[in-house]
Design goal:
Layout: H1 9-17, E1 26-29, H2 35-44, E2 49-52, H3 58-69, E3 72-81, E4 85-91, E5 98-99, E6 107-112, E7 122-131, E8 134-143, H4 150-171, H5 175-188, H6 193-205, H7 216-220, H8 222-237, H9 242-255, H10 260-284
Parallel strand pairs: 1-2
Antiparallel strand pairs: 3-5, 3-7, 4-6, 7-8
Helix pairs in contact: 1-2, 4-5, 4-9, 4-10, 5-6, 8-10, 9-10
């Protein structure tokens, strides 16, 4: 938590956004930290955040963190496609800086506008950014076609759900964010304590018959639903503490997923860690 100078989190975030082109990487140790503030600072400066728990090897985590960010090779990157291809809902939403030995996996949706030609033909992709103090553009030939692998769609959906839940966690809940998260989670099998709750609530509102429910066991378990409902409220409101750190780690796993299955498992485990800590805290009260 801020202890000197400006202490209001909203004012700090606003000041950070005025600071120009600097990157502020957030590195949180332990649980006595404001994850919403650290995540907003990282988000506002095109950086990223990382959290280390008390039982993890701090020296290794710090070393890996520094090794990752010490040699940027391309910054302020943006991508353009030719050939009438229009993209939407790309993730990461902003292409992060590229560091030596690192890679950026970009997922999204696309359409080919009328008159854009054959969707299966090659088009130009131009990646532009700053390298060695100069703007440079790299041009590649890429192919957009109708064929796809199922894992690509699920990977995109995993990132999209992570983005939607993080928007709710950091900026507040809206019906649009909640409804899209529950729809994608149901369609692509992205199950965490929070997405399960959203799916159950959505099917309640639509009065889906129990036989057609996606989460029949949870739908019929009133005590479990009540607990997860309260945990969902904590997810939206809690800014610090061990459960807030677990939630931040969970959403990072989803947003930057490179393998959907592994990331879903890790993200779900961190979500479960948060809800378990919440239940334990409630029992001690």
């Amino acid at each position: 938590m801020p202890t000197v100078g400006t202490r209001n989190p909203d004012e700090i975030v606003a000041d950070v956004k005025k600071a120009g082109d600097a990157r502020i990487f957030s590195f949180g140790i332990g649980s006595d930290i404001n994850t919403q503030l650290l995540d907003q600072i990282a988000e506002g400066t095109r950086a990223f955040s990382q959290y280390v728990l008390e039982n993890e090897d701090l020296e290794v985590k710090v070393s890996n963190f520094y090794t990752r960010i010490k040699e940027p090779v391309l910054t302020n990157a943006h991508l353009e496609f030719g050939g009438g291809v229009r993209t939407s809902k790309l993730y990461p939403a902003q292409i992060p800086d590229l560091f030596k030995g690192d890679q950026v996996v970009l997922t999204g949706r696309y359409t080919v506008v009328a008159g854009g030609g054959d969707p299966g033909r090659e088009v130009e992709a131009k990646l532009t950014g700053m390298a060695n103090g100069r703007e440079q553009t790299f041009t590649y030939k890429v192919k957009f076609d109708d064929s796809s692998n199922d894992y690509v769609a699920r990977l995109w959906a995993t990132r999209r759900v992570g983005f939607l839940l993080d928007e709710i966690r950091i900026h507040g809940e809206t019906s649009e964010l909640r409804d899209e998260a529950s729809d994608l989670a149901r369609r692509y099998g992205i199950v965490t304590p929070y997405t399960a709750y959203l799916i159950v609530e959505d099917e309640d509102r639509r009065r889906v018959p129990m036989a057609d429910r996606s989460m029949q066991s949870m739908s019929a378990d009133a005590p479990a639903r009540a607990e997860v409902s309260k945990a969902w409220d904590e997810f939206k409101e809690k800014k610090d503490g061990a459960d807030a750190v677990a939630n931040a780690r969970s959403q990072n796993a989803f947003k930057f997923a490179e393998q959907s299955g592994a990331s879903i498992n890790y993200g779900a485990a961190e979500s479960l860690r948060a809800t378990s800590m919440w239940r334990n805290a409630r029992r001690k009260q």
